[in-house]
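Hello,

Our lab assistant flagged a job as stuck in the queue for most of the afternoon. It eventually completed. Since we weren't sure the result was trustworthy after the delay, we are filing this so someone can double-check. Below is the sequence as submitted and the structure that was eventually returned. Let us know if re-running is recommended.
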Amino acid sequence: MEDPTKVTIPARLLGALHAEAAKAAPREACGILLGNGHDIERISPAANVHSEPEARFEIDPRALIDAYRDARGGGPQVLGYYHSHPAGPPEPSSTDRAMAAADGSIWAIIGLGRVEFWRDGPSGFVPVGYSCPAR
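-- returned structure --
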């Protein structure tokens, strides 16, 4: 049985999340988490199209449309999203909380040298553990 309080992600993808955050700084990096069930199998970096990218993020709508279209065509499912907090902790900010859809998506937030995972549910964000299985 799948554990909704835990995701799996290959170590190379954790490294890629850190690299995306470093490359985007001082702007917030953002993108899409793809996979099946609770297994994150790919990340899809996206342009941050927010008018204040140093403090906020908005995933390029074209990237979202493409990801959902690919999923409908049999590709990996959209499990959630990621973004960075260039100068803050890897936890949902007040803006993240206000803008969240409460749809059960996984959010990976990169900040202060760490990646933490969260599930966006009806009661707000809850922490989600992760493991990096040997592959």
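-- support follow-up --
The delay was a queue issue, not a problem with the job. The result is valid. The chain is about 25% helix and 35% strand. The first strand starts at residue 6 and ends at 8.
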